[in-house]
Specification:
Number of strands: 16
CATH topology of the largest domain: Uridine Diphospho-n-acetylenolpyruvylglucosamine Reductase, domain 3
Number of domains: 4
Shape: globular
Bound molecules: flavin-adenine dinucleotide
CATH architecture of the largest domain: 2-Layer Sandwich
Distance between the termini: 25 Å
Mean pLDDT: 96
Structural class: alpha+beta
Strand order of the largest sheet: 13-10-12-11-15-16-14
Length: 462
């Protein structure tokens, strides 16, 4: 079918105003936060219902064009990039909270609702949706489920997967499936719902979701600690975990803190040191604050930490969190080459030592900024582009760094993508974390749900 006819058919499904081919929209909707691939979609379509999504997917099957499902486009692996003439299917109009069910402690919403809006609706009902990260104001629930997003409280609440109780999806073959139905327990054969979580838009378009909600969180106390040595950080985590109800444990270096403070004009909490650890503790008991301070004192005496502050109120807690949460956006100015690796927390000290040596010895020209979710064994290693380097030279070196880290991760039986997914960015690294047999089965699953390969082709694997 000629392109003009195709666009006419799409406009007939969604209405003229929800189909766009303007250059601004093609650029805006054709990329995520990676910026490595120039956007080049065919068009952007914004359906308003599951029926419209299904009609678009069926048309793609009959006419043989590719679709890129698109949420908030905050992804960090190129999953939502449309660089090869695909149709962007943006879920943003499907952004309603359908129902909150306090008795079942669940919330049902459309896929295009933002993570923050879900958190807000849960809080209004006196409950909590505890999955959280710095992009929550822009990312969509559909995107969070499609990437199985993690975030800052995984060590307490788990990843997105832990909270999904139901999904309505349109598969790549155009079938409409209602899965899970909000149930907590449902052992009826293979769990198809789980397959869509983390599938990065390659198996189906997520249209609605039912999420479990938690009780409202207890008050929290937030501490920021300074340490001279990277090697000290895992010991600090263990000390707090043994005596406190940890809800977050994040680490980051002075190189990131200095940039965040400069960009946002923040106040430095204490004199600069090499490493920082942000610890958030739930005040579940009357003595929780004293216990946290006792752990801090002991760590000071042992010389594992060199300085620290405890937030005295919620405003101060939020200020301390900014030092961590603003890192990703602040570093965007240096076009970082991102690595998102994980090892079992017990292996962290050995892994950090080896990875640190690898970066400094083999890649001395790249400034590597390390930060992440220490409590989950998840480290983001962002290599910054030297100003004098061309994009191509930097990319080649970034790929070499990722491969070297991949080989190290494989030695530790870790993950080359802890929470950001594979998308376009990490396809070459798959064999470091998945066996040939696993990859063969993954491709067979893709074939089953999307036999004509119309959904996000080229993402996860070619
Ligand atoms: C400042 C910042 C901080 C971040 N912090 C974290 C963090 O701590 N933890 C973390 O895990 N991630 C983090 N991210 C990454 C990102 O926010 C998450 O991956 C998020 O889940 C992506 O959601 P999105 O709606 O933006 O998805 P998009 O980027 O739009 O899409 C991501 C993938 O999901 C697919 N997709 C989107 N919607 C659907 C749908 N309805 N149906 C099927 N497939 C769909 C896309 O095709 C793509 O493959 C961060 C990003 C930024 C910019």
């Amino acid at each position: 079918m000629a392109e003009a006819d195709l666009l006419t058919r799409l406009a007939a499904i969604v209405g003229d105003r929800y189909l766009s081919t303007t250059p601004e929209d093609l650029i805006q909707y054709g990329t995520d936060r990676t910026r490595h691939w120039p956007p080049a979609p065919l068009a952007v379509v914004r359906p308003g219902s599951v029926a419209e999504v299904q009609a678009i997917v069926c048309l793609a099957n009959s006419e043989g064009f590719a679709i890129v499902p698109s949420g908030g486009r905050t992804g960090l692996s190129g999953g939502a990039v449309a660089a090869r003439g695909e149709l962007v299917l943006a879920l943003e109009r499907m952004n309603g909270i359908v129902a909150v069910d306090p008795e079942s402690a669940t919330l049902t919403c459309e896929a295009g609702v933002t993570t923050a809006a879900v958190q807000g609706a849960a809080a209004t009902a006196g409950l909590c949706y505890p999955v959280d990260f710095a992009s929550a104001g822009s990312s969509h629930i559909g995107g969070n489920i499609a990437t199985n997003a993690g975030g800052i409280r995984v060590l307490r609440h788990g990843m997105t997967r832990a909270w999904v109780r139901g999904l309505e999806v349109v598969t790549g073959a155009g079938e409409r499936l209602a899965l899970g139905h909000g149930l907590t327990k449902d052992n009826v054969g293979y769990d198809l719902l789980q397959l869509f979580i983390g599938s990065e838009g390659t198996l189906g378009v997520i249209c609605t979701a039912t999420l479990a909600l938690a009780p409202p969180p207890p008050p929290r106390v937030v501490l920021l600690l300074g340490a001279a040595e990277l090697a000290a950080l895992p010991g600090v985590l263990v000390a707090f975990r043994e005596r406190c109800a940890l809800s977050a444990c994040e680490f980051f270096p002075e190189a990131a803190v200095a940039r965040v403070i400069e960009r946002h004009g923040l106040t430095r909490p204490f004199a600069a040191t090499h490493w920082y650890l942000l610890v958030e503790i739930e005040l579940a008991t009357d003595t929780a604050t004293e216990q946290a301070l006792a752990v801090f004192d002991a760590l000071l005496n042992q010389g594992l930490v060199s300085a620290g502050v405890m937030a005295q109120n919620e405003a101060q807690a939020r200020e301390l969190w900014r030092l961590r949460e603003d890192i990703s956006d602040t570093l965007a100015g240096w076009s970082p080459w991102k690595n998102d690796v994980a090892v079992r927390p017990a292996l962290l000290p050995a892994f950090l030592e080896r990875a640190n040596a690898l970066c400094t010895v083999q890649f001395p020209a790249l400034e590597a900024i390390w930060f992440g979710h220490l409590g989950d064994g998840n480290i983001h290693i962002n290599a910054l582009k030297p100003a004098a380097w061309s994009t191509d030279r930097f990319r080649a070196e970034g790929e070499r760094l990722s491969a070297a880290l991949g080989a190290l991760v494989q030695e530790f039986h870790g993950s080359i993508s802890a929470e950001h997914g594979i998308g376009l960015l990490k396809k070459a690294l798959l064999p470091y974390s998945r066996s040939a047999a696993e990859l063969r089965l993954m491709r067979a699953v893709k074939q089953l749900f999307d036999p004509n390969r119309i959904l996000n082709p080229g993402k996860i694997f070619d």
